[in-house]
Amino acid sequence: MVEKLIGIALKNRLVVLMLAAGLFIWGILSIQKNPIDAIPDLSENQVIVFTDWMGRSPQVMEDKVTFPLVSNLQGIPKIKNIRGTSMFGMSFVYVIFEDNVDIYWARTRVLERLNYAQRLLPEGITPTLGPDGTGVGHIFWYTLDAKKMDLGEQRALQDWYVKFALQTVPGVAEVASFGGFEKQYQLIVDPVKLQYYDVSLMDLMSKVKANNNDVGGRKFEMSDMAYIIRGLGYIKSKEDIENIAVGNYNGIPVRIRDVATLQMGGELRLGIFDENGEGEVVGGIVVMRYGENADVVIKAVKAKMQDVEKGLPEGVKFHYAYDRSNVIEEAVQSVKETLVEELITVSIVVLIFLFHWRSAIIILIQLPISISIGFILLNAFGISSNIMSLTGIALAIGVVVDDSIVMVENSYRHISDEQVKNTASNNNELPK
């Protein structure tokens, strides 16, 4: 069989050369399309369901949220396992699918089942899906360099300007904010005054919610003009909250300022984010979408940050805390250097031992074609170019070189033997 293939190849050299050139070009295109990352993605094919119910103990979260969700998500097809975790005020359910399942098909199935399972949860509790990223999706971290702004203002700038802008970058699944203080209005209620004015705490809460709202009316026509009637009720300042009426005492309205003190504060924090021991900072973590090219996404994020930086307050700049593109570039450069070193070494070895430049060219041609075919297979199986796959290609080059040297040396020896036989037979046929 091998002899027949060799015979066919020798008789159709042009076809073989065209096939080799086609594979090489296909491989070059595959290299450009193949996702590049430094770390191989070995995480499971999972969908995360997150539920927030602050103030509840882990046992309550387990009984009221985690257990109903786990019980109702078990009927989804192609599931390997479901894991649930409950903690103070939060519930996480990890739905693990089979490896060959499309992640977006899995998210759709989970979302369909959540619409049914939500009726079993407490009123006002809505589970949400986590970002469509993976365990190695944290590709870029940044912080805000703003010495003249306090942590609350930095966090507001991050949440309401920077975050929304970076989430529009193609390939970004989420931008998670960290550090600083999340601003909030805080009501410090005096229970003695509540009792004196006969106002309950639930009445106080419901009045605040009801008064922070716009209401719609209808059209009103007058003098051939139509006017839209609406009520503006959104809270815009601390004074608006303080003037909300919560009750009536002897015909006099009781306002929030009569029973409580209003202040601006930060949400309860469970930790701080310190950078290099120089103090607290505010920033964000860019999470890459499933199956995207990490190097391309990071470059797009940096380009977007240059545009965003133009709209930042004076003196505020971005600082890169973690950039995986550096590791990616170093890994790719290392493989390139290895390939060049091996090509030069193989050429020298072949020329020294065989002393035949055509044999060296044959081996040098085989190496790039073999590498390009390797990237074709990487694309076919959905494997990214990372440290492990590139190192495997670099190690495989040695095997390709060994095989090539053996085959070339064997061919060279057979050709030499045939030439000797032909020379001897010609000498015997000459007249004496």
Topology diagram in text:
Blueprint: H1 2-11, H2 13-33, E1 46-52, H3 58-73, E2 79-87, E3 90-97, H4 103-117, E4 128-129, E5 138-145, H5 151-166, E6 172-178, E7 183-189, H6 191-196, H7 201-211, E8 215-222, E9 225-231, H8 238-242, E10 245-249, E11 252-255, H9 256-259, E12 260-266, E13 283-288, H10 294-309, E14 317-323, H11 324-354, H12 357-380, H13 387-429
Antiparallel strand pairs: 1-3, 1-4, 2-3, 5-13, 5-14, 6-13, 7-12, 8-9, 10-11
Helix pairs in contact: 2-12, 3-4, 5-10, 11-12, 11-13, 12-13
Structural class: alpha+beta
Could you give the order of strands across the largest sheet?
Answer: 2-3-1-4
Helix/strand order, N-terminal first: HHEHEEHEEHEEHHEEHEEHEEHEHHH
* Named CATH topology of the domain at 2-38 and 328-420: Multidrug efflux transporter AcrB transmembrane fold
Q: State Rg.
A: 35 Å
CATH homologous superfamily grouping of the domain at 2-38 and 328-420: Multidrug efflux transporter AcrB transmembrane domain
What's the total number of strands? 14
Question: Beta-strand level of the residues, as a percent range?
Answer: 15-25%
Average pLDDT, all residues: 85
Helix content: 40-55%
For the record, give the distance between the C-alpha atoms at the N and C termini, rounded to a whole number.
Answer: 44 Å
Under the CATH scheme, the architecture of the domain at 2-38 and 328-420 is Up-down Bundle
Main beta sheet strand tally, sense and closure:
4 strands, antiparallel
